[in-house]
Batch of 4 targets.
Target 1
Amino acid sequence: MQIRRVRNEEAALHHYVEKCWIPYHEELSETVASHSLIDDLDIQDVVEFHLDLLDTPSNRLWVALDDVDDPTRSLSTVDATFAGFVRTRLRESPKHFDWPDRLNVSDVWVHESYRGSGLADDLIARVMQQAREDGCAELTLDVAIENERAIAYYENLGFEVQGFRMHVPLQDVTLEVSDSEPMTGAHSTVHLRRVRVDEDTMHRFVEECWFPFWRDLGDAVGEQHLVPDIDRDALVEEHLEGYDVPDRRCWVALDDVEDETVRLDETDAVFAGWLNAGVEPGDRFLDPPERLFIGNLYVESTYRGSGLADHLILRAMQYAREEGCGELSLGVEVGNERAVAYYEKLGFEPHRQRMSVSLDAVGV
């Protein structure tokens, strides 16, 4: 058996797509419906996608070859059995967060006839070698909930669940309020405002919404994620760039507003919560429904139980319909039990789980 790195060379990638990528998705789609390939799949389009993917330093791809006639021959002309593959992506820590650099196992597949041979362990060992070369202390991956065989294998290696990707069809969302129903009690004056792409506005948003969200999340999961000395100006610039796109929105909830015509950066209102959302990027070779991804949802502690979270979700649902999305999706940390319970109450169900393991704990 030989494990070879696949370079961004067209003929080699044609071999990989036909011998590995297509069989991988065809087999996985029998268990995970979201991996079904589109009907009019263009192989050349898939090859060009991988050419672009591998033309970056953060992405790597290896294939496992058996019965190799000549180890020195190019991958595009080699006469061998393609027994499996693994693809990785380096995920560097965002500069405002105290996370380690991680190597993500994007896809791993072993042909059915080679399962039990130890080939999967050999592919993971190659991934670990890359992780050490890149200075990563952890491996991460996402796996579909339905893929029980893969989950069992990763758990055997030492991977543990860190978070879930959840989704729900719009028609299945169960909310206790309607579009026309105000929030309750002392908080009935709260109203939603869209955050515009403006520097002064974004400075106010970062201080009143973004920082409280991450501090609250740190308390919920038992660890703080933010670096001690954040460059606020750089953070605002990143938000301005991130929101200056046509398919992303952010709303804040304001209470005690004296003048609704005052700019968001000048208002004396209380910032009670916020939500951001964007159309989820799709894999153009697969055939899942269009989804709106809820990036963050936060309600300040004194407003919990007022119905504010439901009203923020309602606004996201309205935006989803405007964008032609039939489902909502989001990510949530395992340790954030309050959020998990709320999303489950709304009807969200996990469809993928994020797992990680430190290199020192991998059981290979």
Note: The chain has two domains: 2-163, 174-346.
Target 2
Amino acid sequence: MPLNGLRAHRETAQSLLAELRNRPSHAYLFSGPRGVGKALVATGLAHSIMCERSPGENFCCTPERCPIRETPQTERTRGRAAGAEVERCECCSACVQMATGVHPDFSYVTRPPGRVDVLIEQVRELIVELGTRPARSQTRIAIIDDAETLNIPAQNALLKTLEEPPGHAILFLVTSSERALLDTVRSRMRPVRFPALPVADIEAILERRGVEDKVRAGALARLARGSAARAIALAAGVEPPMKELLAALSNAKSMDFARANALAQEFFANRGDAADNFELLARLLEDILCYKLLKTEFVAFPADAAKKMTEFANGVEVKAVVKCIDAAVRAVEAIEAMANPRLQAENWWTLAGQAMRGE
């Protein structure tokens, strides 16, 4: 998507593009919550540099009208073999190469399917590519997504390139957990922080994606907690465990270690799920706190959650809610700092039980 079509982070993208034109850094660290558009901006910046027809924020590759991006490669090949007429692409050849992942001067590295981390072999291969002179453009650009999953050997392997960068290369690291990276890695990169998206921006993104019911779009946007990717997943039917976590909260007064351990195993087994579900708990508890202090109404999705939240809110003390919110925020921070997610969950549910009992 051209950078001037961004719904969010447009000013950040424009500022970075101006910097890249004039005096770019060798490496950028894009950090912020998951699903807010960090990788989208990084890819858009790469497109804006690589585009040969109209480089800049209005680069010529537009996914909405690009058959190269919309049609799978196997179908295009099959159509050519059968002699069928293939729709022409309006994008320049460099943008087509970018869109299909074959541009010789662009690399996009992320976790392989089924793996929990970016492999050191991927990093070593990238280092070799970055050290090679550009083949088509004047700059080599690489993006490492899910950079928080770079293990220590992979980060150390990358460190020498960050210390002695090739003059023709620009590297973007995209992460949802800046503190998961070594201090030596972070200190050698230009930091750019991306905030959570406002509800209005997420509503607009959902409407653009075909969610016509404004009430549903608003509920999904609030439930997404600032993440467009999470909102899109919710719109596609991927519901978070709101009912289950709310039911566990409602019965927290009888919480013991066995139940806390079971909840930790079921909903907080890995780092991603744990962070998402702690954020969901914090949002639920914040809504409950607003209800108790400000008498605001619950606007929840799914719809029947509002009644259950009201019932729970009427039976809990403000002090207990505040204590649980604080603990949830601290748990997310600990998980981002690579603490054990299941242990954090066990401790949180034990504390929640104590808070609900007034202990």
Note: The first strand starts at residue 27 and ends at 31.
Target 3
Amino acid sequence: MENAAENLSSLYGQTLYLDKLFSYCPGCGHGIVTRLVAETIEAMGIREKTVSVVGIGCGGFSHHYLDIDAIEAMHGRSPSVATGFKLASPENFVFTYQGDGDMGAIGLADLLHAANKGVPITCLMINNTVFGMTGGQMSPTSLPGQVTATTQKGRDTRLHGYPILVPEMMRAMPGVKYLARESVADAAAIRRSGKSLRRAFECQEKNLGFAFVEFIVPCPTGLKKSVREAYDWCKNEMVSYFKPGVFKDETE
């Protein structure tokens, strides 16, 4: 019997998917975004020159399932590492893949400075509103009132502040050429996510400047919900606060 990788190869030709068991939990939105990344790289024919820079957390597993070169950066430092790599090897396609905790907390300064520099790299933030790998603690994007491992009575904005809106912070930066927020809440949202991802990758291929896409995804384990409940939460609660859309598109 053909294995999973061979089945995919028969559909897509020389595939970059690796035949490995996911370490993502059942229903994790990372699996969807990782698949979108793989499909976009294949569709653009940039596999041989692509380098992924991953952060610490569940997002750090993404490159385990793709047959591309990858760098594991220190916690939060992926944008800085990606910037340095791109400046040293401008012929490569370089993107970061990070969670909201890695990018929005310890890595926020690195992200904003990379965006402000305008170096043509692509940064992806997968936002599930918790620190998923370490037990579902409150992250910078946890919603007001959201119960987490460290906010048993819900996030109190008087004590903890408000969920951070990352792409909105970068709209005024002239070096940022593509800026979007998408979700994987349902099939239509996933299709829109694929389109934004392609635009963000094309922004780098055209050497225009910095590109960023935030993906709103569910974390059933961290949210302490069933898969169906987690996707309903993503569609009804998360997307209500983190409104999807393209904030900036200067790729034409």
Note: The chain is about 40% helix and 20% strand.
Target 4
Amino acid sequence: MSILDIRAIQEVLPHRYPFLLVDRIIELEEDRIVGIKNVTLNEPYFAGHFPDFPVMPGVLILEAMAQVAGVLVLKQMPDRDRKLVFLATIEQAKFRRPVVPGDQLRIEVKFTKRKPTAAKMQAQAMVDGAVVAEAEMMCRLLDRPAAGAAAAPEPAG
């Protein structure tokens, strides 16, 4: 059962194919969220990572966790169409086992601290109940630039 399907996620996040890495949200609370990423052989990165043993790059697992976190942050904001969530820090990242085509990532994110312009979160990605990756993340909330304006600089990590 989905709380948010892919269309609803696209109303919250600015990401699009091939960089939208969350397929649905199945739980959404004030301080916690659970998202799903179905990993298929059709993902473009598998062509080169690795041709004979396809493995989802760890940085994309982290990005999927950050996108689920972004939904948690933005879904609670009435003016979310005027905001962007930027990843500011990643700490204590650990990868427990490879993620391969056919796996379904269950991504759980919880706030540990929250301010109006920043949030710190604990994230875990699991496959079949086993933790495959985890990290502490901090994000910053910035105003979205007006159409045609230069993009906001990425915060230093």
Note: The mean pLDDT is 93.
